[in-house]
Amino acid sequence: MTTSKKRPTAKAEAAPEKKNGLVVIVGRSNVGKSTLLNALVGTKIAITSVKPQTTRDVIHGVVHDPRGQIVFADTPGLFTHVPDTLTSLLNEKVRDSLAGVDAMLYVVDATRHVGDEEKAIHRLVALARVPKILVLNKSDRQQPFKDEYLVWSDEFDRVVEISAVDAKGIKPLLEAIFEILPAEGVPLYPEGQLTNVDNDFWFAELVREKIFNALGDELPYTTTVEIDETADRPNGMLYVKAIILTTALRYKRMIIGHKGRMIKEIGATARKEIEIVTGRKVFLDLEVRVDERWPERFE
């Protein structure tokens, strides 16, 4: 009788280790950081506006991927001049957000000349001892000052060109991020969660976005929105009461507009977007108040 030796089975290849990390998005005001965050996550997380200092809080956007999880932190723009309490606090938030991150995206706009604000941001980025990517935004437009930014290329692990508004170049950017992230860490958010903000915060931000978009440079950035109440009505409608705070009576009049036309426009556009996201009928109740001291309470 003969016996056959059992052939050894091939050792299963170890599954590639997933990468999880916190990646901060930095750049000067109006460079497209919030638009980029929305493009990376694939949905609207942060509000966008051409008005400086639109972003005031460090907002997280989460990308879930077979390769791991990336948590992006959107930051306010840094201002070289500090005329008031709000601007000072925003600059402090920018600096605080750079601590404890795993990688950094430095977003620049090559349609604009490198100025004092850009140089201040660049100095902060240069001090960070983490993997960094230089992100050249607005590739869909002429970039006459591109070479001014490319002289910094050697300071970065990767250079990627994108158009955040068109979501072009997002896939190569994500690939570059996963390449430079360390292969360690645990996911910060459960599967499916896309942001750290709750509904009330997002509703307030959305109303603020519509105010800035409707009034533009006419309105100072020292205007904010707080949600006073949300409630489910018996008919299935969502009731949202939002308080718009501004610092002077003349700004209140601007927000309300002649015969209330401006506040109606703001309310209509905000309500429609809330309805799209929530899938519900919404009654949006807006009230404008003057509070000269609200920026002092900002944290």
Give an overview of the whole structure.
This protein is of the alpha/beta class. The chain has two domains: 19-180, Rossmann fold (3-Layer(aba) Sandwich); 199-297, K homology (KH) domain (GMP Synthetase, Chain A, domain 3, 2-Layer Sandwich). 31% of the residues lie in helices and 22% in strands. Strands 2-3-1-4-5-6 form a six-stranded mixed beta sheet, with helices on both faces. A three-stranded mixed beta sheet has the order 7-8-9. β5 (132-137), α4 (146-150) and β6 form a beta-alpha-beta unit. The radius of gyration is 23 Å and the shape is globular.
Distance between the termini: 84 Å
Give the proportion of residues in helices.
Answer: 25-40%
- Backbone CA Rg: 23 Å
**Strand line-up across the major sheet:** 2-3-1-4-5-6
Tell me how many strands there are: 9
CATH superfamily of the largest domain: P-loop containing nucleotide triphosphate hydrolases
Q: Helix- and strand-based class? A: alpha/beta
Compressed to H and E, one letter per element, the order equals EHEEHEHEHEHHEEHHE
Total of DSSP H or I helical runs spanning 4+ residues = 8
| Major sheet | 6 strands, mixed
Oligomer: single chain
What is the CATH architecture descriptor of the largest domain? 3-Layer(aba) Sandwich
Question: How many distinct domains?
Answer: 2
CATH fold group of the largest domain: Rossmann fold
Shape: globular
CATH class of the largest domain equals: Alpha Beta
Could you tell me the strand content as a percent range?
15-25%
